[in-house]
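Postdoc handover notes: sequence design on the structure in folder B. Input tokens:
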């Protein structure tokens, strides 16, 4: 099956060989063969190619689908009141996680799955074509495993995050909970084909020493490390992520020059989460420092019921440009190719031969409109592997 996508005013390819960051082509076209990009070139040369189907962008822009490398969409319950209270002046603390844990434990598998599929559909309508999914609102062996059993059916990018907070049953014995994760959950997650392990390394959650044990045990079982690091305080979590060769250190809100140098040297991506600072009123990190230090930067949603409930990467891009000093180009790259780098993938986040044909047709003549028209739905159609998934 060969699909020609043509009549594109501005095609963002993220071709790493291009002279500009986004590999932008004007008046472009491309062909997807069995879901994989087979050819990219000028629209004038496309007419000569034999194809089974033609998608016309009608003079609009086409970008790679967003790669959202950080989300917590498996949960039940409602924390809108907590959000409203925070906006009225109370401060964010991760304590609210426990209320989601209670609701999630009470929910049936069907409820969890229905909530997940609704959130995935919303993300797809915002242009997301890859979504990483974390567990972490169960915090018992059975409740974490049922989340993972659901997650692996919807995404190959699944993450064991049983180390989100210490559950109340282990309040007096946090190391006992770490042992439980190591002895029971890590092997079971690996058996289920879960790809990643993540830890909330933060005061009030897990210590650096506990995080170190968890990541080491995860790696021994084949789970690759990523980390929630320096979200609320300037601890040692970023350096720890680098020391473990983590694919990504996420939040990274508080980062010293030394932390950034460590990430750059280790090739650990810093995944910034604009919606979290937006929804917690924490200070926005200044992306210019990360770029100047040579760090690869991704942008992800962190969609979760507590610290930020947006699944929209266009929204995150708009904030990143307005308040975090990304250029429009850096922000779009970070939400596509950057997300792919944070997941150690080279087959997504770009539209070059050999990549999966995941793309969004914008209802706009150029990619800059994503930041230029914040809050306006400009994602017209979304395709994964050459097939329409949202319109
Ligand atoms: O990524 N930092 C910890 N976990 C989530 C928040 C989860 C919650 O508040 O429910 C985060 O921000
Ligand atoms: Fe998170």
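Designed sequence:
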């Amino acid at each position: 099956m060969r699909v020609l996508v043509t009549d594109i005013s501005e095609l963002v390819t993220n071709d790493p060989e291009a002279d500009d960051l986004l590999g932008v082509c004007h008046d472009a076209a491309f062909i997807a063969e069995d879901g994989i990009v087979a050819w990219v070139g000028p629209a004038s040369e496309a007419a000569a190619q034999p194809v089974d189907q033609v998608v016309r962008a009608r003079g609009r822009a086409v970008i790679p689908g967003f790669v959202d490398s950080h989300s917590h969409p498996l949960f039940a319950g409602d924390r809108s009141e907590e959000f409203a209270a925070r906006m009225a002046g109370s401060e964010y603390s991760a304590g609210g996680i426990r209320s989601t844990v209670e609701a999630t434990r009470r929910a049936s598998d069907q409820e969890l799955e229905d909530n997940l599929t609704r959130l995935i559909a919303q993300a797809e309508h915002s242009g997301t074509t890859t979504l990483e999914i974390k567990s972490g609102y169960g915090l018992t062996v059975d409740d974490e495993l049922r989340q993972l059993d659901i997650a692996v059916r919807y995404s190959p990018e699944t993450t064991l995050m049983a180390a989100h907070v210490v559950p109340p049953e282990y309040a007096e014995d946090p190391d006992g909970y770490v042992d439980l994760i190591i002895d029971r959950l890590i092997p079971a997650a690996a058996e289920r084909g879960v790809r990643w392990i993540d830890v909330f390394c933060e005061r009030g959650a897990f210590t650096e020493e506990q995080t170190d044990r968890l990541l080491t045990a995860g790696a021994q079982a084949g789970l690759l490390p990523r980390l929630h690091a320096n979200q609320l305080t300037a601890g040692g979590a970023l350096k720890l992520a680098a020391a473990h060769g983590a694919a990504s250190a996420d939040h990274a809100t508080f980062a010293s020059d030394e932390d950034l140098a460590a990430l750059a040297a280790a090739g650990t991506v810093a995944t910034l989460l604009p919606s979290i600072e937006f929804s917690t009123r924490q200070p926005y990190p200044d992306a210019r420092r990360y770029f100047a230090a040579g760090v690869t930067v991704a942008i992800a949603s962190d969609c979760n019921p507590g610290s930020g409930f947006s699944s929209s990467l266009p929204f995150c891009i708009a904030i990143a440009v307005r308040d975090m000093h990304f250029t429009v180009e850096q922000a779009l790259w970070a939400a596509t190719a950057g997300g792919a780098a944070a997941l150690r993938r080279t087959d997504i986040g770009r539209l070059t031969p050999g990549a999966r044909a995941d793309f969004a047709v914008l209802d706009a003549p150029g990619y800059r409109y994503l930041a230029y028209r914040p809050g306006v739905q400009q994602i017209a159609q979304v395709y994964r592997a050459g097939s329409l998934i949202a319109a």
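Context for whoever picks this up: The pocket of N-(iminomethyl)-L-glutamic acid (ligand 1) is lined by residues 72, 94, 96-97, 100, 200, 228, 231, 276, 302, 304-307 (CB under 6 Å). Don't rerun without checking with the PI first.
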